Every structure is written in C-alpha cells, then in structure tokens.
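Hey all, sorry for the wall of text incoming. These are the two entities for the joint prediction.
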Amino acid sequence: MHRLKKLSLPYLIWMIVLVVAPSILILILSFSDLDIYNLGSFKFSLEHVRELNRPEIIVAVKNSIRLSFYATLACFVIGYPVAYYLANMKSKNKTLLVTLLIVPVWSNMILRIIAWEKLFYPKSILNDVFNLSLDLIGKDIAIIIGMVSLYLPFMVLPIYSVLEKMDKSLIEASKDLGANGFVTFKRVILPLSMSGVVSGTIMTLLPAMTAFALPERLSRGKTLLLGNIIEEYFVSSNKMNLGSLISIMLMGVIVIMFVAILKFDKEGETLI
Amino acid sequence: MINNKKAYFNKVIMVLKKVLPPFITIFAFLLIYFPIMVITLLSFNDSKKDYTFRGFSLRWYREILLDDDLFLAIFNTLTIAILSTIIATIVGTITAIGINSLTKNNRIKMMILNNVPVINPDIVTGISIMLVLGLFPISFGMKTMLLAHVFFSIPFVVLTVLPKLKELDPNLFDAALDLGCTRFKAIRKVIIPSIKTGIIGGALIAFTMSIDDFVISYFTTGPAFQNVSIYIYTSLGRKSFSPAVYSYNTLVVFVTIFTLLIINKFNKKQKV
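and here's what came out:
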C-alpha cells in the first residue's frame, strides 16, 4: 500500500499554490503598503492596524458576533433534539428524512434569502394567504430567522452522524448503574456527541459570521456584517490591504476553531 | 399530597419527552422548507409583482426558455457543475488513495491542509483564489470559475472516500500485485470497486456544492460569465429580476426530491 503515497504529491503542490500562497499574500498585504495591481517592493507598515477603528468596522464586528451567536445558539437548541430524534428513530424512512434535510441545499441559496425577504416586507403574499403582515426588514430577528433556516442542516448533520454511530448499550449501562435520563444525557450522551456539536457549531458560526448576501437583502443594506465589509473593500472601494487585515483576523478565529476540532477529531471526519 | 405532585410532575416530563422531539423536528423541517414553499408558490403566480398572488399560471415556466440571459446562466451553472464534479471526483479519489498510504503523521498533516477550504468561510476562499489568479496573466471568466469549483470540491471528495479506504484490508492491494496486476490495474480492479459508495457520495456533494455556489463564484468570475446565483444577485441590483428563476428553482428541487424517492423505493426493494 505504501507504494501509492506518491499519488498525494500533486495535491500537496496544488494546495500549497491555492491555500498556503494566498494566505502568505494576505498576510503581507495586511502589514505592508504592497499594491496588488502593481507588484514591486513594499515596506512593512502598521497603517492598516490603525485604520481598524473605523466606525463601520467596529459596527460590523459587533453585528457579526451578536447575530452569528444568536443564530448558532438557535441552531443548536433546535438542531440537537432533531439530530437525537432522527438518530434514535426506528422508522424505515429514517435515511429519507435525513436526506430531505440536505435537499434544500440544492435550492439556490440567494433565492431562499429572497423568499424570506419578500415575506418580511409589510406588503407580501402572506397578506393574500394568511391575512398576515410582517414588518421585519432591517431588524435583527429577520437576519437570525434567515440564518437559522439556511444553516440548520449544517448543525443537525454532524451531530446526527455522531449520535447514529454511538454505541446504544452505553446508555443502557448508564441506566443500569442508576443514572436517570438527565444524568445519562449530561454524563454519557452529550460528551460522546461533543465532536459533532463542535463541527456543527463551526459549520454554522463561520458562514453566519461572514454572510454578505443575507444581511444585505434582509436589512436593505443597513446591517453590515464582516462579509459585507470584506466584499466592499475588495470589490468596490480599492482597500485590499485593510480587507486583507480583516480576513487575517477571521483566519485567526478559524485557527482557534480548527484546534478545537482537532482536539475532538483527529482527521476531521465528522465534518461531513 | 407531595407525592401526588411529584407523580404529576414526572408524568408531565414523560409526556414532554415523548412529544417534544417530534414536534421540534417538524418545526425544523418547516423552517428549512418554508422558503422553498414560498418560491414554489411564487413560481405559479400569474403576476410579475411577487408581493401579491393573482392566480395560478405556468407563464414563468415558459419564460425560462424565452429569457436568453437566464437560459444562458442555467446552462453555465450546469456546465460548471458537471465538469467540476467529474474533475474533482477523479482527482479527489486518486488523492485519497495517496493520502491513505501515507504514514500517520503525514496523513494528519495532509488532512489539516485538506480541511482548510472546508472550514474557511466562502468569502475567505473566494478572495484567496482571486488574489492568486490575479498574479497570472489570465482573464477572469469560465476557466477561473471552473478552477475555483474544482478547488473547493476536491476536499469533500477526499473526506468521503478516505473512510471507505480505511475499512479496506491493505493486504488486498499487495495481493493483487503479487498475482501479477500492474499498479494501475490493481487500483482499478481492487481498490475502486470497494470504495464505490464513497466515490458516489463525494461526487454528489461536489455537484451540490457547485450548483448552489454564489460567494466563491462571485469573486472568481469575470463580467462575461454568470451562473444562476450571480445572475439573480445582479438582476436584483438592476431591478430586472424575473420570477422565471422561481420556476427554475422549483424544477430543480422537485426533480431532486423525486429522484430521492425513487432511490429510496429501489433500496427498500433490494433489501427485501
């Protein structure tokens, strides 16, 4: 079998070009005056670090943390019981139900955001169908509902796959030894499903934190998240260096989460 | 009296335990499927104004064929999805075979690198590829978008194929070689058939990720090449949004659900 290890070499080079190289480039851009369109010599500078106190960045950081925290918490509170219920189900249609959780991903994400947007305006088809009028555009709750609806499957699936593989006799053993349902859950089931919870949290938290089409549509461009700021700095206003610095900070958060995953799951197999 | 109260309390908990999980599961499915139901309803709406339902009509389904821009965007989306799935599945499978035969330490290092694009938020992956490709004298368009889709699909193929490879007896490959197979033939005749389900699963995930992608495509394409997500996003900005995209999306979702139901039926029959 060891004769096959050369097969992973091209991928290593490919990943160095497309993962390691851009990370270094982003790092250089963050702490220097390098102009990406005009590559040449560059000087180390902390100018962009000082620019971080721009009001729009501070607001975006606060918005990102607040909204992604609530959305992830809601996903966990709803998602764990769902994963538990599906994993312990004895119906023949179990696999079908789990697959149905993934189907919406086939439906266009932007379009699902637009569907929520249409409902959150006071004048919507809800008036015709349920005689109901919502006015949520621009409010936090609109963005949180949108996020939960979009990212909930990413919380349920990793927890489900861990609970599904879990040895059920451990639960019986815990009950035989006198633990009640709550203690069994706290001492046995939850710790054993922790790797699923960690990857589910990461798979929900990161997209929620960096979403940019979602807050733009559901707040009519009023609530900015980190994703909106990065997009603006890279695409509209030519502030790539500052945009890079914000990305570097995000990567820092990712590295911390990465370490969390590795602690629970050596080769990252619960990710999918 | 106290005993009565306790018994009553216990009974309430028992009932809650039975009723709550299925109730939350139904709620979760509603939350995930609600936007899709709205999109389906709007796709049959006999009005261009999507805040009011005027009556049942199929005009937006006809419009898919008549709207040249939308038709082209659908064609582009499918082309990219099919090509990137084929390339990523082949490369990912070969890479997984290579990674599987590495020593444990190197394998973990490779998997960390492999998981970077999985965990990275799309926006960071998008700007990373944009920055690297910007260093080369190529114009952004179909080729760059295809490269980006291959890039973010391969890690998912590796993650689905690798567990299947681990279940495989490593001696099988050596036995095939001893019996006179060439290395290529041993891979094709021994390894590939035993990891078939992993390869199919990986291909499905790759296709799903590609057909729905917005953020990474947005950063890696040029003005001349749009997929459906980018088409929808820019048409919102230009206020030229056509409800025909609702019809396209409804078709995709129902074809998917229909296919899944058939697979489910087929699997059940096979088991009997």
